[in-house]
Amino acid sequence: MIExxxxxxxxxxxxxxxxxxxxxxxxxxxxxVLACVFVCAACGLVYELELVALASYLIGDSVTQASxxxxxxxxxxxxxxxxxxRLRRHAAAAFGALEAxxxxxxxxxxxxxxxxxxxxxxxxxxxxxxxxxxxxxxxxAIGLLIGAEVPLLxxxxxxxxxxxxxxxxxxxxxxxxxxxxxxxxxxxxxxLPLLGQLxxxxxxxxxxxxxxxxxxxxxxxxxxxxxxxxxLLAANLAVLGVLATAAVLVDDFERAAREAxxxxxxxxxxxxxxQEVVLTGDTDxxxxxxxxxxxxxVSGRDEHRYHEALVTPxxxxxxxxxxxxxxxxxxxxxxxxxxxxxxxxxxVEIDPAVVDLARRDPALSRLNxxxxxxARVRVTTADAFRRLRTAPPVPSYDVVIADLPDPGITAxxxxxxxxxxxxxxxxxAPEGRLVVHAGPVSSRPRVFWTVESTMxxxxxxxxxxxxxxxxxxxxxGPDRTAGAxxxxxxxxxxxxxxxTRPALGPGARGPKPTTLTRESLGAARRAxxxxxxxxxxxxxxxxxxx
Length: 546
Fold this sequence. Notes:
Blueprint: H1 26-59, H2 62-84, H3 91-120, H4 130-160, H5 165-219, H6 226-248, H7 250-262, E1 266-271, E2 276-280, E3 289-292, E4 295-299, H8 303-311, E5 321-326, H9 331-336, E6 344-349, H10 352-360, H11 362-367, E7 377-381, H12 384-390, E8 397-403, H13 418-427, E9 428-437, H14 445-457, E10 461-468, E11 480-481, E12 490-497, H15 518-529
Parallel strand pairs: 5-6, 5-8, 6-7, 8-9
Antiparallel strand pairs: 1-2, 2-3, 3-4, 4-11, 9-12, 10-12
Helix pairs in contact: 1-2, 1-3, 1-4, 1-5, 2-4, 3-4, 3-5, 3-6, 3-7, 5-6
Subunit structure: Homodimer or homotetramer.
Enzyme class: transferase
Active site: 403
């Protein structure tokens, strides 16, 4: 047998250190290395997907976050592969140390990012903000470590039995790609629903450390000095200890982080298959707050102003049959049911947990006037786009109210597309009205006017209007991130019809609004028009503009 540092055979690469001294047969050794490649690839993809998912949840705009994380990681993988060339002579020791470090960094990345979000709240604004650079730093570090795996594993598998480079690459990449497939499927279908974001990635780190350490300490232990074996064993045990401790404390961490984000009066916190739902307040005089994925959707302080401004102008005309898209909290339906001649209200809500909470929670059901006990209200659990697409193309609704998340959240972009408004137009009666919450005007005028331009492109006649938030300028309307200091100070709406341009009015046949008059609505229209941006293209499914 050739010793580890014997002279290289003719034609061998400079890093050749001779065949590995294995405790098993070469065929078994190759199988174990390829199995390790499989597991490491699965773990690496879980780290990537976890960063994308957490960034999309905390920051929003999942397309941007996925692009940033994946592009940085792929770039870093290339750099890691180049740097690993210098470690090939000590491939076994280097691979063991690398896997221990990758398990620690990858396994703790989600908790670190969530901690920064919870205790600093600094995720808005420019990319110069610290937490966003922390996301890039984790992507870079994990990418470097993943990229360094391949050259080292190639060296190890060649030391077991030399073969042509093409065959070795094919074997290695086959195991790598199949492992990536398993990791990619395990994350959304197994780890995320059963363990959650934090525990799932910690378990992945633990598996990564165990498999990497076992391969080196078991299969290639004769290539390591006694001191190196003990150091590697200690490092892996330390990493496993850190991950195990974090996993044990994860519930306490989540509670503390939740209090840092939402305050200390959290009453309900649940994770549905779609989003995180949190209810705060309505105790000891504190106003109720409903948060979806960390964004304030309802505030008991001023939700009445928002929902009245959303619903009242749309009800200034025929309104016997009303369709509410979103609005599972029941508050838009509450405003609709104030009109006695309403015969039916259909609510399309994607998350049944929100509807159940609006039915059963004493504070929220009291705020929405117990609308789900009204026989005129019917709920459909469905995606609004899919529901409209499968609906009969027959004009059937006098009023359609789109109380949906902001278009800047990528999952909702299709609900602000030209195709979507075309589907709404099909179910809108000839004299019917559509009203859309289009986000804050003052802070995001381009988004607001893109919504209006898109509605016009779908064949609708529009009247935009802008209603101010609370007098303090700290509005609590939809899509404000919990704890953010840069809250929108206004709400933007677009009223539309299939025929002539709709006029804004409080509705002569309904109850008298508490905050809106014909004069105030006229001022709201002029306030919006003063910010108009002309020439904006429509947003479509294949070319979103938000």
